[in-house]
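Lecture 7 notes: from sequence to structure.

We start with a single chain of 205 residues. Read the sequence below before looking at the structure.
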Amino acid sequence: MEVAKMKVSDREVFGRRAMARVRASGQIPAIVYGRGGESHAISVPFREFSRHVWKHRKLFRLEAGSQVEEVYLQDLQWDNINDEILHADFLRVDFSVARTFTVGLVFVGNAKGSSVGIFDAKLDSIDINCPPTSLPESIRVVINDLDVGDSIMVKDLDLPENCSPVSDPEEMVCNVIPKAAELESDDEAAEGEAGEAPAEGGDEG
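Now the structure, written as tokens:
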């Protein structure tokens, strides 16, 4: 994964109104923490940082004066109305040392058995161990060859170089099940709900 360089500013103001003023000035309030160091409040340039986010960049070298920190973008707080970034959390990391990350799965193609079966994604992400610079944006799962009864396990995934799974290798990622099996499962669930209904009110008399 590409490492983005970004100049940031130390931040000495806190609270909701102060944060609003920071955003009005074209900055985004953020925090840097982890690796045994003290939390460091900063402001990052709104437009530059937003471009990095839309390009799915997670690794940054933040420059605050003469201080440079290697960080991983751990979390973002969004304005659900304006779809703008309100706050960012950066975790200090050593780019040369492997650590555990959660990476999303992207299913590619159409399962061969989907005409007579149902494709069922069991997971949408897995945990992997790798150096931060080897971290993939996502993991592609090609499902074209999946027929009814076939499945893909964590151990079957094609991981990038220097990456190893932390999630259980035997855990199922996805499979294709017969449509009849899904209908039977739905029927059993409906019967169970119908059987439980009288118990809620109890017997009268």
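DSSP finds three helices and 14 strands in the chain. Keep this in mind for problem set 3.
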